Amino acid sequence: MNSIERMAATAAGEKTDRVPFVPTIYEHAAYLIGKVPSDISVDLDLLVQAQLKAYEIYGHDLVVVGADIYNVEAEALGCRVKYYHDSDAIPGVESHILQERHISELQKPSPWKDGRMPMMLEAVSRVKKEIGDLVPVNGTVVGPYTLATILAGYEDFVMKMLGDAEEAEKILSFTTAVCCDFAAAFIKLGAGVSINESWIAQPVLSPALYRKFVYKYHQKLIRQLKEAGASSVGIISGGDTTAICDDLISMGSSILMADYCCDQKLYKQKAQAAGIVLRGSIDSKLVRSGPQEKIAAETLKLLQECASGGRFLLGCGVVPYDTPSEHLFAMKEVVESFELR
Questions:
Q1: Which residue, of 114, 122, 274, 276, has the greatest Cβ tally within 10 A?
Q2: Is the peptide bond before 118 cis (omega within 30 degrees of 0)?
Q3: What CATH number should be reported for the domain holding residue 135?
Q4: Which domain holds residue 314?
Q5: Rounded to whole angstroms, how far apart are CA atoms 188 and 126?
């Protein structure tokens, strides 16, 4: 099987030759070509070169093209982003546009014209042209809640949810539309899309506030993207999502994420009952620090707990910038030698 066949069979619950290996490689791709994250975040050619180099080295089963993944839409909407070309720091937002302007003053950015959004679309298109016959290629967008907190500032947006529900709803409705437009653009290119929404996990967001404010927008987003032609849509959140695990399934997601800090066996049971794919991760901090023997042991443990019955992907969250390649090879070796039953 090649990666396209392997991922399709996994999604359908069919027998595969092995579990798909899906580390998430963003800033680490810059490291592989001797650049820093800010370099590939603003340079189309470097971003494409970095992602193709990562695939050449690791041969992973899903290539998600991205860098500085949480700030692209925010920058297109007016937030100032600071870049660090002399260090390996990840770019960061310096200003929150909703602390300067009202939500009614913002206009949805065009994915094809505004900020770095067109660059990301072109990068996906180029990568897909090079390797898209071998491996699925995804673009990446930021989820509605995470984008809302970036536009308003985390504390300010939490206070809006607690004290001005109407305003919070307006912001979330707007950010959902932004997310949908950007994701639909990737789908139009024939690519998949990963929706990054890690700010919904506890303790950043309480389950009560998630259910009151965010859940319905996730439902809407998933429905609209499936209508736009997406074969698989998932809300990707690291961290401890145990308290909202059932919500992440019932919203219509095709994939459930189980980070290393969750009860991954429980998540497997829930995903299997729902007939959706489970994406399990070992700790990305361990993948960076090693040793390789511990990485291999944790990879094997996760496979033993969750691979049975199919519909399982194995990853490690976002690979840290300067992770030694040997550490990812240690993971992949275990995955490739693990016998599926």
A1: 276
A2: no
A3: 3.20.20.210
A4: 3-337
A5: 14
